[in-house]
């Protein structure tokens, strides 16, 4: 006798807790690691990176100021996250939901605040690809230029920081647009996911790059003003 008819529900994706409800995430599996473990590993790795960077650059250039050290550590952290963490995303974006590697689980945890990372969203993928291949190496290059006290530090710092600022602003804007115009929210309603993951963590790549753009612009403007003044002084002699 023929078996029961096959319906589309037999092939439906496993249900998942992401927003908007009903989002299709291929092969989704819940994380095996706890939130505490994932966040502890992320922030612990950041501390190790900061410490090793501090020790290394102080040996190379002992006269670095506190401001220079903080800026170097920011660019090293940013570059590392861009190249390795976000690089993992663009290499595995279509299968993140089904993976249980540690980095994939971090992405699945973060995606409670923005499910676009698990649904092969075109805008997010393109933004992240540019970030990985352009701004990631750019961050590490700026850090190296600061250590070597290169005059090219400030022009490149403006370019890289502007790229980060633009990308993060576009990332925010498209999410807010979809919610305001189409009523689509990519974040779960819990405050922790929206305010800590989505707002606070991403805002660092707006606030700090904006401050660095101002710093480099002020330095460049001051240098140009001083050079112009010297030229005028020579003309009067």
UniProtKB/TrEMBL annotation:
It is found in: Membrane. The chain crosses the membrane at residues 35-57, 69-90, 122-147, 192-214. Pfam families: EBP (PF05241). The keyword Transport does not apply. It comes from the Eukaryota. GO terms for molecular function: C-8 sterol isomerase activity; cholestenol delta-isomerase activity; steroid Delta-isomerase activity. Belongs to the EBP family. InterPro entries: EBP (IPR007905), EXPERA (IPR033118). This is 3-beta-hydroxysteroid-Delta(8), Delta(7)-isomerase. Its main location: membrane. Residues 67-213 form the EXPERA domain. GO terms for biological process: sterol biosynthetic process.
């Amino acid at each position: 006798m023929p078996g029961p008819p096959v319906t589309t529900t037999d092939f439906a994706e496993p249900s998942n807790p992401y927003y908007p409800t009903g989002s299709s995430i291929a092969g989704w599996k819940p994380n095996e690691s706890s939130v505490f473990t994932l966040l502890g590993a992320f922030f612990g790795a950041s501390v190790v990176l900061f410490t090793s960077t501090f020790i290394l650059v102080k040996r190379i250039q002992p006269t670095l100021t506190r401001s220079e050290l903080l800026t170097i550590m920011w660019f090293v952290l940013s570059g590392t996250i861009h190249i390795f963490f976000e690089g993992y995303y663009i290499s595995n974006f279509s299968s993140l939901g089904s993976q249980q590697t540690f980095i994939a689980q971090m992405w699945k945890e973060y995606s409670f605040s923005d499910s676009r990372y698990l649904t092969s969203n075109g805008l997010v993928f393109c933004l992240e690809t540019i970030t990985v291949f352009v701004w990631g190496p750019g961050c590490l290059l700026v850090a190296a230029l600061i250590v070597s006290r290169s005059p090219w530090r400030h022009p490149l710092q403006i370019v890289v920081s502007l790229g980060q600022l633009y990308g993060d602003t576009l990332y925010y804007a498209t999410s807010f647009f979809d919610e305001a115009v189409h009523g689509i929210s990519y974040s779960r309603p819990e405050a922790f996911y929206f305010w800590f993951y989505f707002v606070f963590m991403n805002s660092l790549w707006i606030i700090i790059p904006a401050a660095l753009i101002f710093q480099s612009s002020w330095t460049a403007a001051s240098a140009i003003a001083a050079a112009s003044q010297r030229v005028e002084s020579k003309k009067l002699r």
